[in-house]
Amino acid sequence: MSITNVAIYVRVSTDRQAKKGDSIDEQLSTCKNYIASKENMVLAGVYIDDGISGRKIKRGDFEQLLDDVRLGRVDLIIFTKLDRWFRSLRHYLNTQAILEANHCDWLAVDQPYFDTTTPHGRAFVAQSMTFAELEAENDSVRIRDVFDYKYRQGEVLSGKVPLGYSIENKHLAPNQDAGKALHIFQFYAECGSLNQTIAHLESDMGIIMSQDNLKKSILKNKKYIGAFRDNDHYCPAIIPAELFNRVQELLAINVKSNQKYSYVFSGLLRCAHCGQAFSGFTRKTKKKAGGFYTYPYYKCHGAYPNKRCVNRKIVPESSIERYLLANTKTLLQEHIAEYEIASAKIIDYDSRRVALLKKIDKLKDLYINDIITMDELKRDKEKYMKELEDLPRNQDQKDLAPIKKLLKMDLDSIYKTLDPAERRQLWRSVVREIRIDDHKNLKIIFL
């Protein structure tokens, strides 16, 4: 009597863990009892994938099982049901080819009618796999629909929340750290440097994180402006939309400058013709006493080296500084006056938005108390949601403090004492971008 080396494979997915007959212990017990009932079978190993979908091919213990099959350590693989093995026809067929090449069979203990030794049996298995895959896809769609509904209701489905928020009654609510989140956005918007922001977080706030984590969890996180997925009213906003958008613009700048020199206007200059960012470079001249003078310049990234733009002017950093020092205060005063006139005309839509949200909440009470039908609830809710979506978003009030602070400065005197990094931070506090045309004309866009 030949001995058959049998491997037990057990898999549970998170959405089916609690279903009767699908727990790890139950599957393992069923398979061990099957081996014990056969005189010629010995247990070669147990392979368990916990919380892994049957639609995935990359599973830890499953991959180890296939390695052992290739090494000739397994003659037969058993599991309780076919859907514990696979729920994807393509992955099943690919794996079956590996098993056949290594003379390894499989058996579903609770479904002995599956037989891969005949053409009809293999066709039946393939057909069953097709239905299993369809069922898995339908399950996925149903789960996704439930999640989408909960997201639309502003519910939190994860315990991980952004800095500055807590979970209250399944919804995000600002907490005592909301000010920290706002400060991080403001600091980055002023300095424009991820490295400088990370250093500030660690030294001054005791927060340690990588660049990727800073961008993903904070600076690019739309929850800070109240939005998530397709819901623009997912949670209360902590960050003004204008500040958030400013940060996104800074993050999107992807022109790498020479890191050996600290450019004052890095990330602020744009071509008035093609919209590309200007990149910095330096030219050097020898000093009589030895060493070099270094002079920074800027050029359109669309013109050099790509030659896709007509703006091939080379602009010295010093000429931009002279223009700003001579004109900034006058331009800022005009900017403030224009903003204050425009602000007086803005309509406040907050009260209407709050009223609509209250009406939507009241609909549920009316339905529960049998005052309206489900059809009426859906109809009225759709009407209110449409009106809510059509309401213009209020413009966030600009923070004019940095501008007014600069206007009070003796700018010419102070500017001479600043190093390039400090000068860059100064301009970033009030300037969104500077557009330069092919005649070296400058247009300042303030924050």
TrEMBL record:
One Gene Ontology term from the biological process aspect of the record: DNA integration
Pfam families: Resolvase, Zn_ribbon_recom
Coiled-coil features, chain-numbered ranges: none
Record-linked Gene3D superfamilies: Putative Large Serine Recombinase, Chain B, Domain 2, Resolvase, N-terminal catalytic domain
InterPro entries named in the record: DNA_bind_recomb_sf, DNA_bind_recombinase_dom, Recombinase_CS, Resolv_N, Resolvase-like_N_sf, SSR_resolvase, Zn_ribbon_recom_dom
Domain called Recombinase: residue spans: 162-257
Keyword Transmembrane: no
Keyword DNA-binding: yes
Highest taxon of the lineage: Bacteria
This protein's UniProt keywords: DNA integration, DNA recombination, DNA-binding
Segments forming domain Resolvase/invertase-type recombinase catalytic: 5-154
Catalytic-site annotation from UniProt: S13
GO molecular function: DNA binding; DNA strand exchange activity
Protein name according to UniProt: Recombinase family protein
